[in-house]
Amino acid sequence: MTDALCHLVVDGNEVMEIKLVRSAEDIEKDDCSFAPEMCHQVFGENENIFGYSDLQIRLYYSAGSLQTYLGIEYTDKIEPSKSEGLKADDVEGALKKVLAPGYTTNLDQFVSLLKKDESFTPYGRLLYAFTVTPRDGEDKRTFEVYYTETSTSNFLSFHQRLQTFLLWYVDAASFIDVDDDQWTFFTVYEKYQSEEGGWRYATAGYATVYRYYAYPHHIRPRVSQVLVLPPFRKMGVCAHLLQTIYSHFVTLPEVVDITVEDPSEDFQRIRDYVDAKNCQSLPAFQPAKIFQGFSTEMANQACSKYKINKKQTRRVYEILRLKNTNTSDKTAYLSYRLDVKNRLNAPFQKKKLEMKKLQKVLKPEEYAATLTATGVGETQNRLASHYQTLEHEYRRVIHRMEMDFD
Predict the structure, then answer these.
(1) Which residue in the list 14, 37, 261, 378 is annotated as catalytic?
(2) From the first residue on, what is the mean pLDDT of each consecutive set of 10 residues in the chain (406 residues)?
(3) What are phi and psi of 243, to 5 degrees?
(4) Does residue 261 have an active-site annotation?
(5) What CATH number belongs to 3-117?
(6) Of 104, 304, 370, 404, which one's alpha carbon is 20 to 30 angstroms from that of 297?
(7) Which CATH architecture has domain 121-262?
(8) Among 205, 191, 126, which residue's Cα sits nearest to residue 163?
(9) What is the CATH number of domain 276-406?
(10) Where in the chain is the domain with CATH 1.10.10.390?
């Protein structure tokens, strides 16, 4: 591409504006806007859009029912006849593939659709309500979490609009197969009063959970997708949403344990916080026992009370032990670090044993090549780095527990 055309290449994240619109006045308010964190799942790996001058993409949703408006504006568009056949990217075509059917490109029509939110009520069954006080000193805000299944009346068309947010905020996101009735949904809404005084709802986030079969007649729920929309972040909404999921499933006798599918670092931190906060009151996690090391008793109590699997329970133990360790006491702190490093080192020790067996059957040059390829020689450096990263994450969880910000 020539330098003369470079001005026609823009970053999709920078030209897209997303809004959750509660009233027609919000359309003109800049403080209602937020940007995508990624767009490669729509516009390609480099996230660039080609062929337009002053491109602006507006993706507006009515705050409750998520009626959708798509606006695409630009001052000029490249013409193939004047640019050696180069074509502008088909922006609406790319978006049409992912947006739910029924979106409008007419702003006046979108404004009229906002009236639907006056009578919008959440789908499904109310499980939990909570209030939060934002850190910036605003008034308390009220939220409600609702449970739905694929069979819930009219929910799937709403979900079709809701899941489009995944593309902008969850890497490697994919839309789920809603024909599979093992999917369950937990949607959180903000409940607020309109200027007229009535109650209204704004969609704030959601989670999908798949009920995997476990032999012989049990299930193993797996948290799959979790998303809190940008205007509702940093308020503890995700922690409450996860706690609601736990509270729903722990009471079901057929549930073995609850797992999470490929959690992001941010979500794992929230999960650690919720699990550690829940487990710290259990008898097996009291200081007198926690300094004796990880135990079967801990795994059993965490699973029995909160359906936490053994791998996650071990993380909870390490977090709570660090929380109770006086790190100024060199002996106590060393004991803690060795305990965690022994767990981290276990897979490498297994690999070392395997390498010793290989050494007996491989030629010296083959063994040296295998040693290099597997990185066994770098174990100590990787172990130290892994531990430092882990302790940093644990300290962030502990800090939040001490702040006790829900």
Answers:
(1) 261
(2) 74 97 94 95 96 96 98 93 85 97 97 94 98 81 98 97 97 93 98 89 98 95 97 95 97 96 94 98 97 97 97 98 97 96 79 62 69 59 90 97 73
(3) -60, -35
(4) yes
(5) 3.90.360.10
(6) 404
(7) 3-Layer(aba) Sandwich (3.40)
(8) 205
(9) 1.10.10.390
(10) 276-406
